[in-house]
Write a structure and sequence with these properties.
1 helix, elongated, mainly beta, Immunoglobulin-like, about 40% strand, single chain, about 5% helix
Length: about 100
């Protein structure tokens, strides 16, 4: 149902969390990505959700998702790109600077 990759290297991010929220902000599901950065979640049809991808020491990202009208219909992949905080900071003469 989707994939999480590093925004700089484009490599998959394993063990990232995908949290699914309903329109009221209640968590409905939490899944983790596999070694290939892929995840799958099953949700009721004809509903609106907010998917949030996150991992320790990485940026987070969120996307709105609406499920199809029929059970069993798959929605298009919901993919995310997260930035590793180490990629955003460089050290110059012992001083951290934003990249």
């Amino acid at each position: 149902m989707g994939k999480v990759i590093n925004s700089k290297s484009k490599l998959p991010i394993a063990d990232a969390s995908i949290t699914v929220y309903d329109p009221f902000g209640d968590s409905k599901a939490v899944v983790k990505t596999d070694a290939d950065g892929k995840y799958k979640v099953t949700l009721p049809c004809s509903k609106k959700y907010r998917f949030v991808a996150s991992k320790l020491n990485h940026s987070s990202d969120e996307k709105p998702v609406e499920t199809k009208d029929k059970d069993g219909d798959e929605i298009p992949d919901v993919n995310f790109e997260l930035s590793n905080y180490a990629d955003l900071v460089k050290v110059d003469n012992g001083q951290e600077k934003s990249s």
